[in-house]
# Entry
Amino acid sequence: MLSIKIHLFGAFRNFSKYFENKDKIELQFESSCTVAELRIAFEKVLQEHCPDFNALLLKQSVFANENNILSEAEILEKSHELVILPPISGG
# Structure
């Protein structure tokens, strides 16, 4: 079993109220998955639990580990703690 914990930052932190005010969401997978597959599973959870979720926010965001922004093709083969980074505006 593969466990991915996603820490919520920026606009995603607003969704923590739907998850007992947790700042992270844990997703379970039977085996390895790509970041693209993680994105699909994460979107399903947000759509199911967060009435104010906007899919465009997720589409414009990236997943990252402690060192790098992850590509959609990146394969996650072991349990991870990742962050979801929404787009930032300003200067």
The first helix runs from residue 35 to 49. Strands lie at 2-8, 24-29, 33-34, 62-64, 75-76, 80-85. The helical segments are 35-49, 55-59.
